[in-house]
Structures are given as C-alpha cells and as structure tokens.
Specification:
A 4-stranded antiparallel β-sheet has the order 1-2-4-3, covered by helices on one side. Strand 3 and strand 4 form a beta hairpin. It is an alpha+beta fold and about 210 residues long. It is rod-shaped and about 150 Å long. It has a domain of about 110 residues: Gyrase A, domain 2, CATH 3.30.1360. The chain is built from 3 helices and 4 strands.
C-alpha cells in the first residue's frame, strides 16, 4: 500500500561559498600586487643604473668639451703669436732685404764670383742639364747696369753688354740666384757706340726679388 506524506518539509540550508570567492580574489590581487611591485623595483633599479651611466657619460662629455675649448683657445693664441712673428720677420726683411739684394747683384756682377745658390740643388741641376750652369770664368766687366728700379719686390733693370752671350750669362746667373725668380728678358738690340766700329747690345730685364 502506498503512503503519501503530505506534511511540509523544512528546507535544507546550503552553505554559502561567498567567503571563499572573496578570499581567492584577495589572494589573486595580492599576488598581482607582488608581481607588479617586483617588476617596478626591477625597472626602477635599471632606470637608476642607466641614469648613473648617463651621468658618468655626460661628465666625460663635459670634460672633453672643456679640454677642446681650452685646446681651441691655445691654438688661437699660437696662431696669433705666429702671425705676429711673421709680421716682425716681414718688417725685418723689408729693412734688410734691399741691402742684401743689392749685395747679391754685386756678387753676380763681380769677377770670380757668382750667385748665391743651394749647392746640392745646383749639382743636381747640372746632372740633368750641364748647360744650365753659369760660367765662373765669365768676365762680368763685359756687362753693366745703367738703370735699376725696385718697387714692391718687382725689379726692372736696363743696361748694355758687349754681346748677347754676355746678356745670356747674366740672365742665367740671376735665374740660379736664391734672391731672384720669374726672370724675363724683355728685349735686346744692337746699338752703335760713338767712335767705335763694334756695336754693343742694349738690354732690359724684369724679375722678382725674394728677400731672405
């Protein structure tokens, strides 16, 4: 026989899991906070290390800039000193140069003498071209200067000679001299001399002078 209990039953209370969920959430948050803190600390350390390294590099750069600045100042001072020295040397040359140049010209036109020149270079020149040397036996009395003018180291000379060969020897000596350069024979021409049947040569030479 079937029995049916129609009496109301008391509901069974289920245990709530809300407290466990909160606890798990808190643990997760704490773990995330710990990880973030660890990462922040690591990054902060790296940033500080990089800042220290940058500070050291910047200090080196500043030191190098300071050294370069001092170097440029010293270089400028040395250049100024050199410029002053050059001016002084030019003034000295301007005073003594003309005298030395005239003494050189006198040596070129003296018997048994010749131009001032660098002996080693002269010997090398003779090896290349034996005809480029001057004749030490030349009688310089065969040529004379009747006009001499020097302005801004530009020299112009005129004179007379017994022959064109004498003019050539004179020009060769000037070319070999350490004092003269850019020699140029402007012209030569034969001229007659009163009471003489032998013509002589009139000449004109332009050149530049180098004060030693």
């Amino acid at each position: 026989m079937i029995r049916i209990n129609l009496l109301p039953r008391k509901p069974v209370k289920r245990k709530s899991k809300g407290g466990l969920d909160i606890l798990i959430l808190l643990c997760v948050l704490i773990a995330e906070a710990a990880v973030l803190y660890f990462l922040y600390s690591a990054l902060s350390g790296q940033v500080e290390d990089q800042q220290r390294a940058n500070g050291i590099k910047q200090a080196k750069i500043d030191s190098i800039k300071s050294d370069i600045k001092d170097h440029e100042e010293i270089k400028a001072e040395l250049e100024e000193i050199d410029a002053r020295e050059q001016i002084i040397q030019e003034l000295i040359a301007g005073r003594t140069g003309p005298v030395q140049m005239l003494m050189e010209l006198a040596s070129v036109l003296s018997l048994g003498s010749g131009p001032s020149l660098h002996q080693e270079k002269y010997q090398e020149l003779l090896k290349r071209d034996p005809s480029a040397g001057f004749n030490p036996e030349w009688d310089s009395r065969r040529l004379w200067v009747i006009h001499f003018m020097e302005e801004d180291r530009q020299v112009e000379m005129e004179g007379k000679a017994m022959s064109n060969e004498d003019v050539g020897e004179f020009l060769r000596r000037l070319k070999l001299s350490d004092y003269f350069y850019a020699e140029a024979l402007v012209n030569t021409k034969e001229v007659s001399v009163e009471k003489s049947t032998v013509p002589i040569v009139s000449w004109k030479i332009k050149l530049k002078v180098r004060y030693r």
